[in-house]
């Protein structure tokens, strides 16, 4: 079973020119539980995750996975599965083809493609082009991608976005199961309600600052809660509580008890033989507490040290100044999409990690994937190490490298002749094409994110029209 790792942010600050996206973030994310990373839009969640994943450098502080920065991980895809943007899949490629390319690039066995598609409930549509997928299906595909390397750590940005209630329920159970296996599961959301039943623990940030870290049930102070209890024989109930030394107030609607929870009160009543007519916990809804924390109207007792600053920040929101235009980090290769990560260069702070990341094992020979795990064909190829590029949309893309069969396949979108598995999935695609009543994706209305993704991919794929009609595989042809 893959081992979870502690994720640790230590004093992480990230400034984009005048905007401080993350400010002194220190937090730990433990394995074996699902941890939510909550905050309103613009709070700094994605930036923190990007720093954790080595996609952008921190202005100061460190973020580590199992004690090391992402860039130092020997097998990144087998250690950490991450999805930052579910919509950024090439619309003209099949789900299986996407996964196949990533699997080959990471030296993972091809069987993982079908396995992960099955795990996320996409087994039947693996041969379909992603352009026809609903947002929920894309979320599932993102999860399949994250799971390819069977990693011990999962980092998912807004995984519930676009899922219908059934999908959210499925995702909830799935993520909890992964955590119970001992993995570290870290998911962001701007809605507490969306993840409330999924997460065990939360980090809440507002305007780049941590405003709470801990268990969900400790979000509100215990003192804010009261239990209203009543019984047909109220005199017997008051005697039982008094005998147990539990103080209470008598109201018209019953007795209000503070300082003892409902279970303890119920136990006292039961042992005194008092039948209850009401037993109810009353207090602020978690959503209310969450909103108070992120607006600065409330400071959690555990964050008392940071209180004055946190409140000041909440009261005076930062004004985002336009980021200065920067020269490109590297000359983009022909056909490779430009990387849009407007970083501030005008500082003496450590330079951010380049947006093009070569994921190279630290020690070449022993650091490769397990021989047992390897696709033998892939293992024999003396292919150059995969080079990833971070797209404007947040997805990690593979930069085509001459002679690298994996990246060449991605560039061409040709059927992967060498791979019988993917051809088999291609046949499924044909069957689906022939089933005119089974095409719900044709009614899918693209979101702005979809259109951005389409435009992004179109920049290096002249055949990938932003149109809604997915082309059959064999029309993909050579792209360049
Ligand atoms: N590359 C960038 N250049 C300039 N400013 C940026 C950049 N990335 C993020 N920011 C700014 O940093 C702040 C935090 O953004 P971030 O995307 O991390 O927030 P978030 O909590 O993920 O929000 P959302 O839920 O809307 O994605 C915002 O003010 C944002 O405009």
UniProtKB/TrEMBL annotation:
Residues 462-474 have a biased composition (Basic and acidic residues). Residues 7-232 form the ABC transporter domain. Residues 322-382, 460-480 are annotated as: Disordered. Keywords: ATP-binding, Nucleotide-binding, Transport. Pfam families: ABC_tran. Residues 331-362 have a biased composition (Low complexity). Coiled coil: none annotated. CDD domains: ABC_BcrA_bacitracin_resist. It comes from the Bacteria. Belongs to the ABC transporter superfamily. This is ABC transporter domain-containing protein.
């Amino acid at each position: 079973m893959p081992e979870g790792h502690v994720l640790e942010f230590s004093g992480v600050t990230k400034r984009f020119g005048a905007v401080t996206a993350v400010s002194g973030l220190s937090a730990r994310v433990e394995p074996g539980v699902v941890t939510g990373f909550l905050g309103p839009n613009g709070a700094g969640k994605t930036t923190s995750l990007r720093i954790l994943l080595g996609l952008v450098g921190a202005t100061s502080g460190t973020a580590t996975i199992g004690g090391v920065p992402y860039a130092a991980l020997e097998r990144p895809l087998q250690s950490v599965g991450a999805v930052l943007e579910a919509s950024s899949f090439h619309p003209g490629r099949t789900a299986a083809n996407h996964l196949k390319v990533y699997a080959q690039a990471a030296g993972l066995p091809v069987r993982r493609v079908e396995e992960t598609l099955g795990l996320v409930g996409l087994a039947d549509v693996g041969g379909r082009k992603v352009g026809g997928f609903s947002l929920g299906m894309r979320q599932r595909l993102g999860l399949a991608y994250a799971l390819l390397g069977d990693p011990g750590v999962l980092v998912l940005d807004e995984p519930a976005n676009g899922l219908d209630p059934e999908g959210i329920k499925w995702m909830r159970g799935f993520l909890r199961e992964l955590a119970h296996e001992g993995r570290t599961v870290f998911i962001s959301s701007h809605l507490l309600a969306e993840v409330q039943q999924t997460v065990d623990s939360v980090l809440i940030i507002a305007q780049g600052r941590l405003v709470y870290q801990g268990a969900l049930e400790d979000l509100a102070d215990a003192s804010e809660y009261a239990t209203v209890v009543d019984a047909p024989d109220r005199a017997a109930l008051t005697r039982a509580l008094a005998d147990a030394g539990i103080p209470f107030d008598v109201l018209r609607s019953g007795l209000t008890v503070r300082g003892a929870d409902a279970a303890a009160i119920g136990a006292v009543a039961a042992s005194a033989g008092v039948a209850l007519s009401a037993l109810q916990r009353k207090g602020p809804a978690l959503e209310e507490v969450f909103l108070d924390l992120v607006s600065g109207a409330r400071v959690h007792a555990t964050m008392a040290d940071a209180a004055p600053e946190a409140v000041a920040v909440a009261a005076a929101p930062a004004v985002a100044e336009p980021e200065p235009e920067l020269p490109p980090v590297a000359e983009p290769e022909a056909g490779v999409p430009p990387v849009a990560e407007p970083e501030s260069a005008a500082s003496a702070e450590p330079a951010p990690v380049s947006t093009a990341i070569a994921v190279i094992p630290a020690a070449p020979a022993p650091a490769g994937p397990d021989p047992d795990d390897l696709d033998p064909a892939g293992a024999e190829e003396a292919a150059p190490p995969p080079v990833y590029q971070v797209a404007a949309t947040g997805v990690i893309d593979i930069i085509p490298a001459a002679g690298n069969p994996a990246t060449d396949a991605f560039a061409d979108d040709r059927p992967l002749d060498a791979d019988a598995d993917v051809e088999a999935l291609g046949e499924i695609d044909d069957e689906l094409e022939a089933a005119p009543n089974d095409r719900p994706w044709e009614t899918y209305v693209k979101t702005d994110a979809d259109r951005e993704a389409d435009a992004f991919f179109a920049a290096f794929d002249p055949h990938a029209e932003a149109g809604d009609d997915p082309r059959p595989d064999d029309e993909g042809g050579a792209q360049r």
